[in-house]
Amino acid sequence: MVTNSKHTVYKTQLAPGVSLTCVNAGRFKSSSITINFISTLNKKTASANALLPRVLRRGSINYPDMESLSALLDDLYGVRVEPIVRKKGEMHCVGFFVDFVDDRYLPGGENLLEEATKIACEILLYPAAKNGKLLDEYVQSEKSNLIDDIRASINDKRGYALDRLLEEMCADEAYGVGRLGSEAEAAKITCESLTAHHHHLLSSAKIELMYCGLASPERVENAFRSALKDLPHEKRNEAPKTTVILEPNSDAPRRVNETLDVTQGKLTMGFRLGNFMKDPDLPALMMLNAIYGGEISSKLFQNVRERLSLCYYVNSMVDKYKGIMIVTSGVDFSKCDDAQNEILSLLDEVKRGNISDTELTAARRSIINSINSALDRLGGLEGLYFDSTLNTPPYDPVTLSEKVLEVTKERIIDAASGIKLDTIYFLSGNGEENEAEADDDT
C-alpha cells in the first residue's frame, strides 16, 4: 500500500500475471474499473488486438446482442462499458473501461461495483458465440468499422504526419506499428482467427486491473476474484519490454517528403534521447519537454509561432517508455526550412543552459497544473496510474509532480545533452494557397 498527499494506492496480485491496482478516489460520484491485456506491439497482431474488444462489446452469452446488453446496463443506473486500445511504448494495451455510479448515490444501497465487474468480465470470458466461435456477423461488422477508422486517419493531417514519421523512423522497430494496426492485416481477420486470438490473450497475456473509487481494496479484490474465477490459470507472459534505441542509425538525419492535397505543410521531426535513457530522470525529462515545446510558455511556441510567425502550431512531446521526442508543426510550404532551423536552434539553446528562471517557473506550474487537472477527472486519474504501473520502475503520479519542484537547470541540461535528430518528415501539398487549417491554428 502506498499513500501520497491525495490518494491511498493498494496493489496486489490476484494470480500469476494478473495485477490489481486500487486508487482511493472518494471525491467523484462515479467509480471506474479497467481490464487491460498487455502484449507486445506487433504488426501481425495489432489489428486483431484493436478489433477484439469491439467485437466482445457486442454481447455476452447471457446478453447476446446490443439491445439486451444495453437494457441491462441501463437498469444498472447507466453502467458504461467501452473498448480501450492504448499504445504505451512498444506495449499494446487493450480491454475495457467501465464506469458506474458510486454506491453512495444509489437510492437502494445496491452493490453496483460487483454487478459492473461481473458483466464486464462476462463479456470478456463468455462473449456471444456460436459453435465455440465469435459470431461472424459481429466480427465482419466491427472489422469494417475498424478499417474505416484506419482509413480515416489520413483526414487528420496532423496525426497522419505523426504516424508517418514513426513508421519511417521506427520502420524496423515495433514502435512503428500503429495503435489500430494496418488495413491489410485487419482485412485478413476471420471469426476463427479472432476466436483463437481471444483464447491466446485470455490464457497468456499479462493482465492489469485498475479500480478508482471509494470501495475498500478487499471488496474490489473479492469482486474481481469472483468475476474472473474461470480465467485460465496457465503461466502468463511477463510484461513486455520496450526496446530503446539510444542513437540514430546514421550521422545525418533521414528526410522523408510526401505530397497530398493539403494547404498547410506538416513538419514533423523525430529525435532520440541518447544515453540519458540508460537511467532516465523522469521529472527532468518532463521539465525539458515543457520548457522546449510542451507548453504554451515553451521556447518553441513563444519563438517559432509567436515571435517569428513561422508556423500555425508547434509543440514537442516525449515517449518516456521509448526514449523518443517528437516535434510537430504546421507551416507554410515556403517556410519549412526556416521553421526547421529555428526548432533545432532552440534545442541547442536548451542544451547550452539558456533557460531563464521565468521559463523554469512556468514549466513547473504547467506540469503540476496538468497533472492536477488529470487527477480531477476519473478517466485522467485512471490514465495516470495505469501509466505509472507500466513504467520501469513504477512511480507514483502525485509524488512525481512534487518532484518536479526539485528539478534543477543542470538536470534539464543533462536530459537534453544527448538528444539527436533522427528523422524529418514533411507533408506538402499541391494547392495554390497556404492557409491555416481550421483545427490547427492554435
What does this protein structure show overall?
- The structure is a single chain.
- With 442 residues, this protein is α+β, with helices and mostly antiparallel strands.
- The chain folds into two domains: 2-227, Metalloenzyme, LuxS/M16 peptidase-like (Cytochrome Bc1 Complex, Chain A, domain 1, 2-Layer Sandwich), CATH 3.30.830; 254-441, 2-Layer Sandwich (Cytochrome Bc1 Complex, Chain A, domain 1).
- The protein has 15 helices and 14 strands.
- It has helices at residues 46-56, 66-75, 112-125, 136-152, 157-169, 183-187, 191-204, 217-227, 282-294, 299-307, 336-351, 357-375, 378-390, 397-403, 409-416; strands at residues 2-3, 8-15, 18-24, 30-40, 80-88, 91-101, 129-130, 133-134, 206-213, 254-259, 265-272, 313-319, 324-331, 420-428.
- The chain has a seven-stranded mixed β-sheet with strand order 1-2-3-9-4-6-5, sandwiched between helices. It has a five-stranded mixed β-sheet with strand order 10-14-11-13-12, with helices on both faces.
- Strand 2 (8-15) and strand 3 (18-24) form a beta hairpin.
- The longest helix has 19 residues, at 357-375.
- The chain is globular.
- The chain starts with a strand and ends in a 14-residue tail after the last strand.
